TrEMBL record, chain A:
One Gene Ontology molecular-function label: tRNA N(6)-L-threonylcarbamoyladenine synthase activity
GO biological process: tRNA threonylcarbamoyladenosine modification
InterPro entries, sorted: ATPase_NBD, Gcp-like_dom, KAE1/TsaD, T6A_TsaB
Cell cycle among keywords: no
EC number(s) on file: 2.3.1.234
Taxonomic placement: Bacteria, Pseudomonadati, Pseudomonadota, Alphaproteobacteria, Hyphomicrobiales
Keywords: Acyltransferase, Iron, Metal-binding, Transferase, tRNA processing
First-tier enzyme category under EC: transferase
The name this protein goes by in its record: N(6)-L-threonylcarbamoyladenine synthase
Alphabetized NCBIfam families for the sequence: T6A_YeaZ
Reaction catalysis annotation: L-threonylcarbamoyladenylate + adenosine(37) in tRNA = N(6)-L-threonylcarbamoyladenosine(37) in tRNA + AMP + H(+)
UniProtKB/TrEMBL annotation, chain B:
Primary site of residence: cytoplasm
Domain Gcp-like, chain residue ranges per copy: 28-316
Name the UniProt record assigns to this protein: tRNA N6-adenosine threonylcarbamoyltransferase
Reaction equations catalysed: L-threonylcarbamoyladenylate + adenosine(37) in tRNA = N(6)-L-threonylcarbamoyladenosine(37) in tRNA + AMP + H(+)
Membrane-crossing segments per the record: none
Localisation: Cytoplasm
An annotated GO BP: tRNA threonylcarbamoyladenosine modification
UniProt superkingdom: Bacteria
Originating organism: Camelimonas lactis
Stored HAMAP family: TsaD (MF_01445)
């Protein structure tokens, strides 16, 4: 199965083409950026596909990171992925950015708890953590860095993601030995492809996974009093 | 030539397939519109983040449905048009990204359409009106008078310096406790009311430039209402009728000024065209009919489904551009503000 993976949920615009189970991508490109994904993604996809023999016609599945992350960023990736899926008549699956960050460090974490932490601003992080052996310690959620450190307990931890520094500082302050995983600020598109190749299209839907409600309050009042 | 058009600039997720026959006459093969009104009603207006969340879940389904209804495959499409602004940027990016992806996979051209151009070229979609004509575009987000001289050749003669007309209707409805969207509610109440009971201003009346200002009128409605609290049902109807009568006068006066300005730059218009959701208001329509008769021009009012936001007008504008050889590349950016007439970019308070 050949997969096209797309990630625009966090601080990068990336895509790769990979065969399921292959150790390396056929074609891949990552541009580090905080904003500008909307303008960068399609030209990047054009380049990535140009280096993949068979082009779009050889793609069996499209994978996209669905968040949590930048609301705008993840919607760009999802819109593109769903449109490509529509055009190619192939399944589109979603992978959370937390699991895409977690998977590569699980192997290197050893006896430590592997943690993905994405900076959610205002001192908060999107967090997910798994213990050695795969038991979920903290399911995906939004928490303050302090709450997150408390949820992780007292064992040694290894953290990936843009919120790693923030969470590590909190962990250290309560005496937990925390390591920040190197080069793990945003998902590696090859890991997005790997997870997507294994996902079940019936359940891993390409829908945004915001983990945060829209900042809008229903309006009441404002109307003049009626007799 | 056959173009797929995508519209996501406000609170409708829409897609359509429009083509031309051998003689270049337009045919709307399909036009699918999903309105988000219910999702925004509790907030009393369109919430950008809620709109964007709805667009991303729906736009690919609308494209699929538009193709299916048209009975065509993606490979039968000659170009992909999306409204690239002006509008709520989160939604605009979703529609534009969708069109870019379809263009990349199929290798067919991308056309980034100005949403306002979609409205501006609608009369040519329904009855092949010839250039030049005067367009009054009036909706919840836009209020502009535009001389349409050709595809891509627009001169804005007037715009609102504060609220759009539809926005003023919605705000008046809200202060009077009428449900959202308020335009049709105000019109319904106005039918029962006395338009002469309250003396409301006609802002900008007689000014030589065809700009609008609605915010003072809205404030005047509030002040009149506050004098007679609490409001009885008949008070609400009378306030609505008086407000609507003032808007009808303002629209006629501003459009009359624009017609005068039009002659200086483009000669005699082939028609006066009204588009945008406000064109659904029958009192405003009648006012424009009177004005058109007085000025010796024809009034063209597209059917309501083409006045409000939809994919067909975007597909058509895309088709008009594409057959002139105009297309865009994959780097084109969505634009929250995008005046049709670039020379008027900097006017204070001018929306879009």
């Amino acid at each position: 199965m050949r997969v096209l993976a797309i990630d625009t949920a966090l601080g990068a615009c990336s895509a790769c083409v990979a065969e399921r189970g292959a150790p390396a991508a056929i074609s891949t490109e990552t541009m580090v950026m905080e904003r500008g994904h909307a303008e960068a993604l399609l030209p990047l996809l054009e380049r990535v596909m140009a280096h993949a023999p068979g082009g779009f016609g050889a793609i069996d599945r499209v994978v996209v990171t669905v968040g949590p992350g930048s609301f705008t960023g993840l919607r760009i990736g999802i819109s593109a992925a769903r449109a490509i899926g529509l055009a190619l008549k192939v399944p589109v699956v979603g992978v959370t950015s937390l699991s895409a960050l977690l998977s590569p460090i699980v192997a290197t974490a050893g006896d430590r708890v592997a943690v993905a932490a994405i900076d959610a601003r205002h001192g908060q992080v999107f967090i997910q953590a798994v213990a050695p052996g795969g038991r979920v310690v903290v399911p995906a959620r939004l928490a303050t860095a302090r709450e997150a450190a408390r949820l992780l307990g007292s064992g040694n931890i290894m953290i990936a993601g843009s919120g790693a520094g923030l969470l590590a500082a909190e962990a250290w302050s309560v005496g937990v030995n925390a390591t920040v995983a190197p080069d793990a600020l945003f998902p590696d598109p090859l890991w997005v492809a790997r997870l997507g190749a294994l996902a079940d299209p019936a359940t891993a839907l390409p829908k945004p996974y915001y983990l945060r409600a829209p900042d809008a309050k229903p309006q009441e009042g404002g109307a003049l009093p009626r007799a | 030539m056959r173009v797929l058009g995508i519209e996501t600039t406000c609170d409708e997720t829409a897609a359509a397939v429009v083509e031309t026959d051998g003689a270049g006459r337009p045919i709307i093969r399909s036009s699918e519109v999903l309105s988000q009104i219910a999702a925004h009603a509790a907030y009393g207006g369109v919430v950008p983040e809620i709109a964007a969340r709805a667009h991303v879940e729906a736009v690919d389904h609308m494209v699929a449905r538009a193709l299916e209804r048209a009975g065509v495959e993606l490979s039968d499409i000659d170009g992909f048009a999306a409204a690239a602004g002006p509008g709520l940027i989160g939604g605009v990016m979703i529609g534009l990204t969708t069109a870019k992806a379809l263009s990349l996979v199929t290798g067919k051209p991308l056309i980034a359409v100005n949403h306002l151009e979609g409205h501006a070229l609608t009369p040519r979609l329904i009855e092949q009106v010839q250039f030049p004509y005067l367009l009054l575009l009036a909706s919840g987000g836009h209020t502009q008078l535009i001389a349409v001289r050709g595809v891509g050749d627009y001169v804005r003669l007037g715009t609102t310096i504060d609220d759009a007309i539809g926005e003023a209707f919605d705000k008046v409805a809200k202060m009077l406790g009428l449900p959202y969207p308020g335009g049709p509610q105000v019109e319904r109440e106005a039918k029962k009311g006395n338009p002469e009971r309250f003396h409301l201003p006609r802002p900008m009346q007689g000014r030589p430039v065809a700009d609008f200002s609605l915010s003072g009128l809205k404030t005047a409605v509030r002040q009149e209402a506050q004098k007679i609290l609490p409001l009885r049902a008949s008070d609400v109807s009378d306030l609505c009728a008086s407000f609507q009568a003032a808007v009808v006068d303002v629209v006629a006066d501003r459009t009359r000024v624009a017609l005068r300005g039009f002659r200086d730059i483009a000669g005699h218009p082939t028609a006066l065209v009204v588009a945008g959701g406000v064109a659904a208001n029958m009192a405003i329509r009648r006012g424009l009919e009177r004005l058109a008769a007085e000025a010796g021009v024809r009034l063209v009012a597209p059917p309501l489904a083409l006045c409000t936001d939809n994919g067909a007008i975007i597909a058509w504008a895309g088709l008009e551009r594409l057959r002139m050889g105009i297309q865009d590349d994959l780097t084109v950016a969505a634009r929250p503000r995008w005046p049709l007439d670039a020379s008027k970019d900097t006017r204070a308070g001018a929306k879009a």
